[in-house]
Amino acid sequence: MFQPIRVPRSCTRDEGRALEAALQEQASNHLKSALYRVFHILNRSLVRWMMRKYKSFRFHQREATQWLRGIAKRQPELFAHWQMGIRP
Question: Which residue of 7, 16, 34, 57 pairs with 64 in a disulfide if CB–CB is 3.0 to 4.6 A?
C-alpha cells in the first residue's frame, strides 16, 4: 500500500516539511488514521530533540511535552500534522 520512505539524517527543515506534506497527501488518498502512529512518533522525536537541545528539559520529559504542546497550540502552521490536529 505505502512505499517506504527513507529520511536521511542530514535532512533540512524545508526538506522535512516537504516530506511530511507528501506523507499527509498520500494518507489523505488512503486512510487518514494510518498515519496517526507515524505522526505520534514524529511528535515523540521532537520532544526527545528538545530534551537534547535545551538543558532545562534534559531530564524533564513531561515539561518538554507540555512546552511543545503550547507551541503546537500557538503555531499549528509549523508542521503539517499539527494542522490536521495531531498535536503532542
Answer: 57
Spell out the residues 6+ positions from residue 73 whose beta carbon is closer than 8 angstroms to its own.
87
Residue 35 cell numbers, joined:
498515519
pLDDT tens track for 22-61: 777 766 666 667 778 888 888 999 999 999 999 999 999 9
- Which of these, 19, 20, 15, lies nearest to 80 by C-alpha position? 20
CA angle at 44 for the pair 5 and 60, rounded to the nearest 5°: 155
Helices (H), 1-88: 13-29, 36-53, 61-74, 80-83
Global pTM? Answer: 0.65
* CB burial string 22-31: b at 16+ within 10 A, e below: ebbeebeeee
Query: What distance in Å separates the CA atoms of residue 51 and residue 38, rounded to the nearest whole number?
Result: 20
